Amino acid sequence: MKRSKSILLCILLTLFCLCGCLSENTMPTQHSVVLIAKSTSTEFWLSVFAGAEAAATEYNVNLTIIGPETEEDYEAQNAMVERAVQENAEAIVFSAIDFENNAGAIDAAAQAGVQVVAIDSSVDSTAVKTYIGTDNYAAGRMAAQTALGRLDGTLNVGIVNYDISSANGQERERGAKDVFMESGRAEITAVINTLAEAETARIDTAALLAEHPEINVLLAFNEPTSVGAAQAVGDLGLSEQVFLVGFDSNVVTVDCLQEGSVDALVVQNPYAMGYLGVESAYRLLSGGSKDVQHVVDTSTRIVDRENLFSIDSQKALFAFEQRTH
User: Fold this and answer.
1) Total domain count, the chain
2) Is there a domain that residue 181 lies in?
3) pTM of this prediction exceeds 0.85
4) Which pLDDT belongs to residue 207?
């Protein structure tokens, strides 16, 4: 009887150990991913973060989100890349402030074995495994076509862009200029590059409009510059004279769209950029690289006063709020 009990105890202990080993061996690996943004404060980036966090939860990713205080500080981004490597990040999801000057840090990270995913704004590095974001050249064309489609006669265009070294802003500008040139009835009156900060953009846009009162079309290429441009148009009482196409959406630009100082918004899909960025990093780290496309074009649409309250426009404008409630 004692012998039987001993045998049974040994069997139970063996099974317990086996189960423990199996459980330990079958536990999914939690990969470490760092998302390095251009900024951490605008609604655009908050929507990116919401998408990234949703993917991190779904794929059991240890996600860290960081970014500089301003969208011009590429050196801070480079330091963040170096720190991520030192802290053993396995993948970096990166939006470059400076196409060229961020490249060295990204190359060094890749040489250290880190997988690199670019979102929103690319970087001059062959180490990037996938770019996820807007087709920025096409988005610039879309902005220009919107103005041409709504207005008759000659267009005198002012462009409010941000950092001249940022790939996405320059691609948007190039796309818009090409469409205006092809139209045969538009002239680029002036182009300014301002800080990606609403108050500075407001001051610089007001100065632009004062210097060039002939401007009747204004394009602004990201969220802060669009807010600043809209405020300048409103402050100067030029809502009837200047047709403004902005990029992205937040409370200010949507309010301005309703009251008239903004005429149309090119709305991107930042939530998808964040989600797909982390998902792609996970796939690269877990043997699913064949499922990662080299370029993923996230959706972009025009929202104006005519379609503002449609279901599709509301989903595009308030994607962050809808997914966090």
Assistant:
1) 2
2) yes
3) yes
4) 98
